[in-house]
Specification:
The protein is an all-alpha fold. It has 10 helices and no strands. GO terms for molecular function: transmembrane transporter activity.
Length: 304
């Protein structure tokens, strides 16, 4: 059960990953769900010009407060599912997992993560997008002036969405997030396992910190890069509803986005996603592996 607690010991690692990548979260959201941004540089300049430095950290408090719980659940589910599969398939929970075991554990982690991650992402995106201009309005909604804040903060945002849209509103975009995270976590943990084994010298029982850092970074870049198309759809669905309701669902969002902006719209923010994925994942995996080693060492010393 110790795997569930490891995240609390790696706070320097996840804080590094979050703080170094968070302004890229804002840029990614604006590029994918906003209007009027031609490219990343234009997005940076526009955000700075209109909102100063604070604009790059808008919506940060809620994800920062919940990242420890989210990460502990994801890595805990992944580790414990692997141990369970090892016990069921090989009679030994510590047996080296096969590729199919890693894939199954990744899939389970992806499903579980959506339950926590959807409300967090929704609040983050609503806070980041509430000052964006819209050219159309939904007459069914109570009129709100685009460009002016709707939500006073993360708690007010959560309560407002819950009151006006119910539980379905809090979990808006959940289907798209499932389609992003289930394959995304497979392309997160599987490449990490592969690269760790590939770059670890023969004869070594476990990878060294440098190997973990590099493998984690590469896995993060691959996962976030390939998840970008569905990440665009998820961001647009969750941003929808600040001032208007534009999309009826995943398919409608895909069709409208393609008709209005072409195929390239689904690759908006892919560079930011890949670049952000490297330091964040490096920090996460390094903290995860070092903490597990420390816990196993403590258990050995306690029960010689």
């Amino acid at each position: 059960q110790g795997e569930w607690m490891h995240i609390y010991l790696l706070s320097p690692s996840w804080k590094y990953g979050v703080l170094t990548a968070f302004c890229e979260y804002v840029l990614q959201t604006r590029l994918q769900a906003g209007q009027g941004y031609g490219n990343t540089l234009n997005c940076v300049l526009t955000v700075y010009r209109n909102e100063s430095v604070a604009g790059f950290f808008k919506g940060m408090s809620f994800p920062l407060a919940s990242i420890a719980v989210y990460s502990s659940v994801v890595f805990g589910v992944f580790s414990n599912t692997q141990r369970l599969l090892g016990q069921l398939r090989h009679g030994d929970a510590s047996h080296a997992p096969a590729l199919v075991d890693v894939a199954l554990a990744s899939t389970v982690a992806g499903f579980i993560s959506v339950g926590i991650g959807t409300p967090v992402d929704l609040v983050k995106i609503r806070l980041q997008m509430q000052t964006q201009p819209y050219s159309t309005a939904d007459v069914k909604l109570k009129p709100t002036v685009p460009g002016f804040p709707v939500y006073r903060g993360p708690i007010h945002c959560f309560r407002t969405v819950l009151q006006k849209e119910g539980i379905a509103g809090i979990y808006r975009g959940m289907g798209a997030m499932l389609l992003r995270d289930v394959p995304g976590y497979c392309l997160y943990f599987i490449p990490y396992t592969f690269f760790c084994g590939w770059i670890t010298p023969d004869g070594c029982i476990s990878p060294n910190p440098a190997s973990i850092w590099l493998a984690g970074g590469v896995a993060g870049a691959i996962s976030w890069g390939t998840a970008t198309p569905m990440d665009v759809v998820k961001s647009r669905l969750q941003a929808d509803g600040v001032y208007l309701n534009k999309y009826k669902g995943i398919i409608d969002c895909i069709l409208q986005s393609y008709q209005n902006e072409g195929l390239k719209v689904f690759f908006r923010g892919i560079t930011i996603n890949a670049v952000r994925g490297f330091p964040t994942s490096s920090a996460m995996f390094l903290g995860y592996e070092l903490t597990l080693k420390a816990m196993k060492r403590d258990q050995t010393e306690t029960n010689p």
